[in-house]
Amino acid sequence: MKILIVEDENKTADYLQRGLSEQGYVVELAHNGPDGQHYALQYEYDLIILDVMLPGADGFSVLRAIRAAKQTPVIMLTARDRVDDRVKGLREGADDYLVKPFSFIELLARLQAIARRGRGQDPMQIGVGDLQIDLLSRRALRDGKRLDLTAKEFALLATLARRQGEIISKTVIAEQVWDVNFESNANVVEVAIKRLRAKIDAPFRHKLLHTIRGMGYVLEARDEDAELE
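Given the sequence above, the corresponding structure tokens read:
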């Protein structure tokens, strides 16, 4: 899940970026209204966290520009606990509203609620063979045993699971999980795949994570006779 934070207070922006990154989200920052509007319209995000009081253009004007072009979910932040501000934000098209200071846990809960609504019929649980992945609670079990995954390892597994049976290139994985582009000789993805494979495959007889040479990786359950790696 890729999130844009538009927040001019560096301390708040850094806190949110660090906390959400630790939860496995890909996070980008903008520190003023014009930059936030540009990023929101130019790129695709799963959710935008938008402060009301911004230099250059306030959050309400940025929200109006976003809603004129797309329906990306938006959570608005404000230091002003005024009913008319909250009503204005919701009428302008905000999906939710938080008043500073707020609990990070509450932000996560609201973010997850919006994600559930947006996904519609997209399942929150994915099964690949005897591997079960709960995208909401961020848990993965194989053969009934809990897998000890880091935030990035879970994000990588979720990316592969959502497109199970499909070969995903290193470039696509890097963009989805790390939000970076890198040269072809970089080994970021290879190292991450190796660590993930050690946890989800090494202790088990049947392998689920497969390397397709020259193309990328695929997560799928195969017949034992077809497992060549």
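The longest strand covers residues 2-6. Try to locate this feature in the token string yourself.
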